[in-house]
Amino acid sequence: MDDDPGLPVRVLEGMVEAVVVVDTRHRTIYYANAAANALLGLKTGEATAGTVLEDTEGLCGEDASPLAPAHHPLRRAREEGRDVEGELVGMTRPGGADTLWMRVNAYARHDAQGAVRRIAATFLDITRHTRMEAELESHRRRLEHEVAALKTARDAAEPANRARSEFLSRMSHELRTPLNAVLGFAQLLVSDTTEPLTPNQADNVREILEAGGRLLEMINGVTDLSPVEDGGPELQVRTETVDMVPPVETRGDHIGAHGTPGRPPLPGSAGSVSGESSPGTQRRCRVLYIEDDAVNVGLLKLLAVPAGLDLLTAGDAERGLVMARREEPEVILLDINLPGMGGREAVGLLKADPATHHIPVIAVSGEGREEGDLTAGFDAWLMKPFEVERLRDLIRRVMRDARGSS
Questions:
Q1: 243 with 271: CB under 8 angstroms?
Q2: Per-residue confidence (pLDDT) for residue 201, from 0 to 100
Q3: 163 domain residue, yes or no
Q4: What is the CATH number of the domain that holds 350?
Q5: In angstroms, rounded to a whole number, what is the distance separating the alpha carbons of residues 271 and 274?
Q6: How many structural domains are present in the chain?
Q7: Which of 108, 125, 142 lies at the terminal end of a domain, its last residue?
Q8: What single string gives the DSSP state of each residue in 106-161?
Q9: pTM for the full predicted model
Q10: 200 versus 355: which is more confidently predicted?
Q11: Region of poorest pLDDT, from 32-46, 49-63, 67-81
């Protein structure tokens, strides 16, 4: 720089910031670069009086209120004898069309006696940046308002959504429960090998099965509930012969492994749930079915023997809890929508009771599983309508899991 004394001036002239050096003693502009002339109309040698360097007329602070003389950055630097940096100052352009926003720095330069002799000031035009910040702030406030409106609308719609979900769940249960009986009894009729249907009767029953299958598809579509269960996909209605046998003897709310007069004995261990057998015997699984729908109870009683089940039944949760403690079943099948105490409350009591907490509980319901049902006590979930094979497989699984965890 010693070799080129004009270099600092050329650097200042090339800056985008307005640079002004004020002679405080003579109140004149000691130096003003080209940007100062273009931005503020200042020239070297001019007096500072009446200019933006001293006058606050037309100036405003960061809050857009008129700038008080005591807050002028250059005046503060001169009177306080220190540097003032980063001040945001607005200046109304000629004609008052808009405001020029500047970031102002004022640096005090002292003489040998400590008095402020000169002030070097820079003015950076940040109007565009400030305008963008204002627009962003406006967008942010508008978005906050819209989000608040959406939250309000969501909260207002929440009761309706809950009511809709409850209605769909209830409707699903009310439709699936009788459909379970229709399809179940139809399958029993088709599969009866001891008293087989005539060809014409078999065709009629197959029509019932096909119509029931279509009805199930409609129920799934109307309720918009994807069946969430354990043990496989949604029921596929089949009309071919399955591993079922005709009704067996029933005794009140208990069905056992005895054949009825005129009926053949029960099949061997192939249909057993446990699969455990000794010569001439078949080990059966003791199951408690808690269900208030008499038709579905009757259906499961018919399915119990070929499924390898020794079935106990209870028409409500309160009686079911008593029977669970007294009879000590190996598995409990529990409906969700019961009169009085519901299935979800009942499973909590079963798992809290030391006498019954170890018994696997399978929900048998026409409604879908809710989040937390399995962690709340249900070991599996079976949607109505169901097939006997799926029920049997599911009982096997929960019994195997229970043995493994004991």
A1: yes
A2: 84
A3: no
A4: 3.40.50.2300
A5: 9
A6: 2
A7: 125
A8: EEEEE-TTS-EEEEEEEEEE-HHHHHHHHHHHHHHHHHHHHHHHHHHHHHHHHHHH
A9: 0.47
A10: 355
A11: 49-63
Report the DSSP pairing between strands 99-110 and 250-251: unpaired
109 and 186 in a single domain? The answer is: no
pLDDT at 379 exceeding the cut of 70: yes
Instruction: Report pLDDT for 95.
Output: 63
> Domain residues for 40?
7-125
Closest by CA to 331, choosing from 358, 349, 355, 307, is 358
Query: Is the same domain home to 187 and 112?
Result: no
The CATH number covering residue 114 comes to 3.30.450.20
Sequence-distant (6+) residues with CB within 8 A of 128 are none
Same domain, 196 and 67: no
Give the whole-angstrom CA distance, residue 212 versus residue 238.
11
Task: Answer whether residue 133 shows pLDDT above 60.
Answer: yes
| Domain-ending residue, one of 106, 125, 144 | 125
pLDDT surpassing 80 at residue 375? no
Assess contact for 388 and 242: CB atoms under 8 A: yes
Instruction: Give me the helices (H) in 246-382, please.
Output: 294-304, 317-327, 343-352
Q: Reply yes or no: is the peptide bond before residue 267 cis, omega within 30 of 0.
A: no
Reported for 369-372, long-range contacts at CB under 8 A and 24+ positions apart, including other chains, are 369/228, 369/229
